[in-house]
Write a structure and sequence with these properties.
Layout lengths: L1 E4 L5 H5 L7 E8 L3 E2 L2 E2 L2 E6 L1 H19 L3 E7 L1 E4 L3 E9 L2 H18 L2 E7 L2 E5 L6
Parallel strand pairs: 1-6
Antiparallel strand pairs: 2-8, 3-4, 5-7, 5-9, 6-8, 9-10
Length: about 140
């Protein structure tokens, strides 16, 4: 399951991967209400979808190979998101927790560094596009 969605992320669909394995690591990126000392009102995400989806597939495959996990799922939301909503979710399933944690961390860190997804933060006094990986 590698998806770009415009509706709320279905966290339950990500969790059902654990039924075959003993460990599931689930990372959820949630829209926060503050960044760099400014109150965030909402976010908007855009992506170059034709490039983003294949790269997300590639990252999931790399994580599976590198850490020997059974499955890696990645879902990123696009469009308008409100405070508290899930913007990105990564699930990695493995017979053992160490590999699941490592694969999940690799997938989210690599997604942020390589996939063309952009975030716009809206404040009371304006908006800013955040294109550096650490700000996503």
């Amino acid at each position: 399951m590698i998806l770009l969605v415009r509706e709320p992320v279905d966290v339950a669909a990500l969790q059902d991967v654990a039924s075959r394995d003993g460990a599931l690591c689930l990372f959820l990126g949630v829209v926060r209400d503050e960044n760099e000392g400014r109150r965030v009102l909402r976010l908007e995400y855009e992506a170059y979808e034709d490039m983003a989806l294949p790269l997300m597939e590639e990252i999931a495959a790399e994580a599976r190979r590198q850490f020997g996990v059974g499955e890696v799922r990645i879902v990123h939301r696009l469009g308008r998101l409100e405070i508290g909503e899930v913007s990105v979710a990564v699930a990695a399933a493995s017979p053992h927790r160490a590999e699941a944690f490592a694969a999940c961390r690799y997938a989210i860190d690599t997604l942020k560094a390589r996939v063309p997804i952009w975030k716009k933060e809206f404040y009371a006094d304006g908006a800013v596009w955040r294109d550096e990986p650490a700000a996503r």
